[in-house]
Specification:
Elements lengths: L15 E5 L6 E4 L2 E4 L3 H5 L1 H9 L3 E5 L16 H11 L3 E4 L5 H5 L6 E4 L6 H4 L3 H8 L4 E4 L21 E3 L1 H15 L5 E5 L4 H11 L5 E4 L1 H10 L11 H11 L4 E2 L3 E5 L7 E4 L13 E5 L1 H11 L4 E5 L12 H15 L3 E5 L1 H9 L8 E3 L2 H8 L5 H8 L2
Parallel strand pairs: 1-4, 1-7, 4-6, 5-6, 7-8, 9-10, 9-15, 10-11, 15-16, 16-17
Antiparallel strand pairs: 2-3, 12-13, 12-14
Helix pairs in contact: 8-10, 9-10, 11-12, 12-13
């Protein structure tokens, strides 16, 4: 898959470029103002911004933050992100708190950067509305998509805008597609998939698709809890739909799937933590108020032995509630295994917000072969699903 590259854009000097990026980053309050708490995603698009700026383009950055549901939410303003971006690119970034006119964008100097307010403040964005997309397109002469993590969503600034402007892929988007295409079509064998997290409904279709290509599948998080519920191992109060239970049961009991043999139970605040070995009747003696929050020590050991044999490893989703001690051990162990596998030459790929957070916590994020900026987009791409944002670029090639 070869995307139209920004290196093919001729005569960038003075041209207005609408650049869609993903800067949906963690924020923290410092007194009365919001600050960027982690700028990794912002740094990932710097090479594209610097390329355009160095050639004299007038860059207008479009992005979103959080889920404001088409309403203006002060805490989700992109103004702090624009200020942080200015520090990284080492020159001013003009911030438009309302939708600017074409004249206002044209008034910017060659080699300048401006940022629009949160695109999800506008109802037309998530609706992929053509009129809103045309308004965005009116600000520019060329469209560049560098937001891989948004490509599985048919939003106006990702899909509809390509109907009105010559459209290209930024460096980050190209890098993501190249790395994930290699994993999808020619992985080094054996290939292992580690799948956890809390979004069971979205993970099960991906699991079904990737089961066809993975040699080994390891499940944790609520995917495994759903399977236990389907098998009448009812621990905690999770309530799953019947279709989820049916699908979890059918997929997780497959021969190539590793199922944890012990779990860590406890309360949300970390109290009363205990290990439960999954023998036939052990779960029937568990306090009804306890929930599953991690995989147990024997499971960690067995997963380690499985991953030592893998030459390609894909990881998405935590093994449990790793933000709360003492439920971090399973997720952090997987993160360290990913780092160790990278050092011995395995091709390691990870994606998703909490997955990256765990990699950062144990200091191995930069050791992996590829860390994707998109969790859902990464899994959809690897599963062979068409991504609307990428399909739109290919259609304009």
């Amino acid at each position: 898959m070869v995307l139209p590259s920004i290196t093919n854009i001729r005569n960038l000097a003075g041209r207005r470029i609408f650049l869609r990026v993903d800067v949906n980053v963690p924020m923290a309050r410092a007194g009365r103002v919001m600050r960027v708490a982690n700028d990794w995603r912002i740094k990932m698009v710097l090479s594209t911004i610097e390329f355009l700026v160095s050639r004299g383009a007038r860059v207008v950055v479009g992005a979103h933050l959080g889920r404001p549901e088409a309403k203006k939410v002060a805490a989700l303003s992109l103004k702090p992100v624009a200020q942080h971006l200015a520090q990284l690119v080492k020159h001013p970034v003009k911030f438009f708190d309302t939708m600017p006119s074409q004249a206002a964008v044209s008034a910017q100097k060659n080699g300048s950067v401006a940022m629009l307010e949160n695109l999800r403040f506008y109802p037309g964005e998530k609706k992929n509305n053509s009129l809103f997309a045309k308004k965005l397109a009116g600000l520019a002469q060329v469209y560049v998509n560098d937001a891989f993590s948004e490509c599985h969503r048919a939003h106006a600034s990702v899909v509809a805008i390509t109907d009105f402007l010559p459209s290209y892929a930024g460096f980050l988007l190209q890098k993501e597609v190249e790395a994930l295409t290699a994993v999808r079509h020619a992985p080094k064998r054996p290939m292992a998939l580690v799948l956890g997290g809390a979004k069971v409904e979205t993970k099960l279709p991906v699991l079904r698709a990737l089961m066809k290509t993975a040699d080994q599948v390891i499940v944790g998080g609520l995917v495994y809890v759903a399977y236990l519920n389907a098998r009448d191992y009812r621990i905690g109060h999770q309530d799953f739909e019947k279709t989820v239970l049916r699908d979890a049961d059918a997929l997780v009991r497959a021969r190539k799937v590793y199922r944890p043999v012990d779990l860590v139970l406890g309360r949300a605040d970390g109290s009363d933590a205990q290990v439960l070995e999954l023998t036939r009747d052990a779960h029937r003696h568990v306090d009804a108020d306890l929930e599953v929050f991690d995989i147990g020590p024997e499971s960690i050991l067995q997963i380690g032995m499985l991953l030592e044999k893998a030459h390609t490893i894909i990881w998405n989703g935590a093994m449990g509630k790793f933000e709360q001690h003492p439920y971090e051990y399973g997720t952090y162990a997987i993160a360290r295994m990913m780092g160790a596998a990278s050092l011995r030459g395995a091709f390691t790929v990870a994606g998703g917000g909490e997955t990256i957070q765990a990699l950062e916590a144990v200091g191995v994020r930069d050791k992996l072969s590829h860390v994707s900026t998109g969790g859902g987009a990464m899994l959809a791409f690897l599963a062979g699903a068409p991504l609307p944002g990428i399909e739109a670029l290919l259609a304009k090639k």
